[in-house]
Amino acid sequence: MYIIKRLFTMLVTIWVITTLTFIIMHSIPGDPFASDADVLPEEVLENMRAKFNLDEPMPVQYALYLKNLATLDLGPSIQSKTRDVNTLIADGFPASALLGIQSLVIALVFGLILGIIAALNRNGIIDYAAMAFAIIGISIPSFILAPLLIKYFAVDWGLLPVASWGTWLHTVLPSVALATAPLAIVARFMRSSMLEVMNQNYIKTADAKGLSTTGIVIKHGIRNALIPVISFIGPLAAFLLTGTFVIEKIFAIPGIGKYFVDSIFNRDYPVILGTTIFFSAILIITLFLVDISYRIVDPRIKLSSKGD
Amino acid sequence: MKKSLLMSLMMVLVIVPFLSACSGDEDASGDGEVAQEITVNASSEPPSLDPALATDTTSGWVIEHVFEGLYTKNKDGEVVPGLAEKMELSDDKKVYTITLRDAKWSNGDPVTAEDFEYSWKRILNPETGSSFAFYLYYLKGAEEYNKGKGSVDDVGVTAVDDKTLKVELNSPTGFFEKLLAFWSYYPVNKSVVEGNKNWVAEADTLVSNGAYKLSSWEHDNQLVAEKNDNYWDKENISMEKITWKMVNDATTYYQMYKSGELDLITSLPVDVIPQEEGNEDFKITPYFGTYMYMFNVDKEPFTNPKVRRAFNLAIDRASITENISQSGEKPAKAFVPYGVETPEGDFREQKEAYFEENVEEAKKLLEEAKQEEGWDELPAVELIYNTSENHKKIAEGVQEMLKQNLGVEVTLNNQEWKTYLDTTDQGNFQMARMGWIGIYVDPTPILDYYLGDSPNNRTNWVNEKYDSLMAKSKGIQDEAERMKVLHEAEDVLMEDLPFMPVYYYTNNYLTSTDYEGVVYPVNRYPNLRWAKKVSN
């Protein structure tokens, strides 16, 4: 029952997002066929608009789009004259997702370790070093970090390729560049969450009972401290999996990140809608997975449809 | 903790086999002989490799290597027969009878006259939705058919037999051979296109007839073409394999060039040009286009021709190209760029400048205009441009010069590209930036820009004499005579100045010194078929 209700909410959410995106994108001035290179006779423009159903009244276009969406057909791309939106996403998502998963793993593994160590050494040198690193990681934007990584690791030291896609080595620098900011955020989250948990009475009780410190930290400390971090992982995973414009552009990654931005500049309506819907779907699914994992980490949380 | 550790471990286990699977394609090249391969940067995925649908030079770059038309260009940029073996022109100069040479598609099918008839009618078919169909309007009945007013049967192209194509034009067209070398006139394989509507989306279904055929296409990543063994002139093709990478970020592809991952790049980040200039591998070539500001002649103060001339005389173009744009551009004091060969030499060199920059003269003109119009002060002027760092710097330069030299305060405004096109199309501007590139190297595609009924002409400037001279030029067969009329047309345009030319574009290239024989056409990306790798 919970799952069914949840599924229904997901569909409604996607419908609302689709509708809003449809309205907003059509209210931006500009025409997908406008360009400086070939301003066309009106008759020819009509041929092209007809090809993409853009000659129909707005409500008809909207209904046609929903009808196709119901069959999971996201329509043709106006910009890419050869690949439709489904193909664009199918071609680009594996690359974006691979980088996303790698950077998510890097961010979580190192972020959690860093946060825990910092918390356990509160106000010690390790804590200060870890948090200094975290602040730098959060404040350096990826479009600065990425060229720096390229300059040292690829150009000066020749250890890794500059950019492009092909071997696993090509994925190292973009994954690191993508992971740095989330890693720092996870570390800071984990540190403050750990500090809070370690002050709780049940930890003191456990200590009083004579449990070993390692046992307390792993069994009671980390497990409880993870809950706020997990709620942050949902959106983070969605963002990382669907690629980022900046990293994909700098490292020439054949992912879908750039379509989120380019489609708007090109007024490529089906791609704007398609990428937005795809991102929403991924986000909704990861949020759902997060809810389930709460349940695993903290048995007190029940999955119920009450108040959902 | 145990569980999250386990999760991470599982993720690693899932990823690692995939990753090691991707890392095995190290290419061991043969020893001794130098492999004839080149890796260049296309910057982005070509939007379409279908000759009927391609509208951009990135697609055109690949298309011109993998397809070929009735005519093609040689190393010197001259238009020479490609698939056409023989072309005969009727006495009224309107009917061409073209005999095809023996040529094959990359799948082994013969290239037939029927393929051409099919291809040309296909691009003109309104349902194809081609935005370059108007380049075929020279054919009889083509415009009517494309605009939904005529029948496909009246289009002036017929396959008489397998090897003979009959083409009927509306009127004599002196530059028809140039058009035949343009990709919108290229053939596609009828049975392939009819058999698979997605034929052009992947390397293994794309059938072409040019010097190369696609061997792989990883979308948004790279495209590889190898020499086509079925090509009729394969003996003269030296480069065996071309890889187009799709790296969009200027700093990135520059660094890939520097680290040897790319052999040729077609532009450089502006800030490295000074340090690369003078190096052996650096090359600046003219590009067949003009950077300009359009005046809206229906909006004050540009209703008065003297104001337009005053603005033209008051800016220092050399200072803009040397200090602001810095890519070796040539200052423009006319519209048609350098690069058009005529019987009397380069079209532009015959008349390089229509005016000389002269601040005193400009001030005088502006005063006269104010008196004529009864203006105490010049009406406020706003200059708009599409958002870009380079356009901004140039606009600021122009703003400063107009202030210093004429005492005119110009306000600047910028808009994102598609919004900008919308604004200028509606004529909501006084002075607006624009660039124009000739799709083939002839004054016609440049000068057509300011025809009274051209949709490009956003200035509201309509001049009957100009329009009639342009129309007249299109019917002239004699090249010297045709150029003379085109010069006259440009004279009319430059007398009235509905725009302010700033500079002629250039292209900057870095080409590895390992290569020889790369050809740099003035309105296309480099032609690589005659290139040779001479060392590793």
From TrEMBL, chain A:
Key words of the record: Cell membrane, Membrane, Transmembrane, Transmembrane helix, Transport
Pfam families in alphabetical order: BPD_transp_1, BPD_transp_1_N
PROSITE patterns: ABC_TM1
GO BP: transmembrane transport
Keyword Transmembrane helix: yes
Family: Belongs to the binding-protein-dependent transport system permease family.
Record-given protein name: ABC transporter permease
Species the sequence originates in: Exobacillus caeni
From TrEMBL, chain B:
Segments forming domain Solute-binding protein family: 78-457
Chief location of this protein within or outside the cell: other
Gene Ontology process terms (BP): peptide transport
InterPro entries for the chain: Peptide/Ni-bd (IPR030678), SBP_5 (IPR039424), SBP_5_dom (IPR000914)
Localization per record: Cell envelope
SUPFAM superfamilies reported for this sequence: Periplasmic binding protein-like II (SSF53850)
Source superkingdom: Bacteria
Keyword match Protein transport: yes
Keyword annotations from UniProtKB, A to Z: Peptide transport, Protein transport, Signal, Transport
Coiled coil: none
GO MF entries: peptide transmembrane transporter activity
Signal peptide, first to last residue: 1-21
Pfam families, sorted: SBP_bac_5
Cellular component GO terms, alphabetical: ATP-binding cassette (ABC) transporter complex; outer membrane-bounded periplasmic space
PROSITE patterns, alphabetized: PROKAR_LIPOPROTEIN (PS51257)
Family to which this protein belongs: Belongs to the bacterial solute-binding protein 5 family.
PANTHER family cross-referenced by the UniProt entry: DIPEPTIDE-BINDING PROTEIN DPPE, PERIPLASMIC BINDING COMPONENT OF ABC TRANSPORTER
Protein name from the UniProt record: Peptide ABC transporter substrate-binding protein
